[in-house]
Amino acid sequence: MISREHTQEALSLAYVHALAGRAGLNIAAKPIFDYGIDGYFYRVKMRGRERVETGTPVRFQMKASVDWEHEEEHVVYDLEARAHRTIAERDPGDVMTILILLCLPRDEVQWLTGSETEMYLRQCCYWYRTEDPPTDNVSTKRIRIPRSNVLTPDSLQGIMTLAREEALAGR
To answer: DUF4365 domain: from which residue to which, for each copy (predicted)?
Structure first.
């Protein structure tokens, strides 16, 4: 049996793949050498009679956890300091990088259920982007993700549009 952490990772990857597919985006996930980035989203367009990746990609890092909480209008999560540095550190011309957090129920039995007619993967994913500088903390950095940042097919399309606009503006 795989570890609890690998189960969480598998669920987060499945969740993000499903959302990207529904949003009509291509996803390149889990590079062989993981230096903090878990994957990229790409828009796809028709060129003649073939589909090709196009536009500005968005990099993402995925996390899945039961150690999160709602605090009014935010999801509060203690992100590893290394992970915060990965999503916060930007060089000129870098593509947008977001964190995707799958918030799972504490009870492992509730994570995923399925039947002949449906499958439930509980809770949801939130996306987070920081304008803060990379943290100097050694272990964790507490982040507050607006609860309105639920990752959905529509929000993924909005993120892709924002990344393109920022790339065109030279940010």
So the answer is: 9-162
In angstroms, the Cα distances linking 3 to 9, 51, 91, 165 are: 10, 38, 36, 40
**Nearest alpha-carbon partner for 63 in 94, 87, 90:** 87
Other CB atoms within 10 Å distance of the CB of residue 52: 12
Domain locations in the chain as residue ranges: 4-169
Strand partners, 59: 40, 97
pTM greater than 0.85 = yes
Task: Give the pLDDT of residue 135.
Answer: 93
Mean pLDDT computed over every residue of the chain: 91
- Distance separating alpha carbons of residues 59 and 38, to the nearest angstrom: 8
User: 């009014």: which residue's tokens?
Assistant: 72
Which helix (H) or strand (E) segment is 4 a member of? helix 4-23
Instruction: Name, in order, each residue with C-beta under 8 angstroms of 58's C-beta and a sequence gap of 6 or more.
Output: 40, 41, 95, 96, 97, 98, 159, 160, 163
Contact 153, 16 (CB under 8 A): no
Say which CATH architecture domain 4-169 belongs to: 3-Layer(aba) Sandwich (3.40)
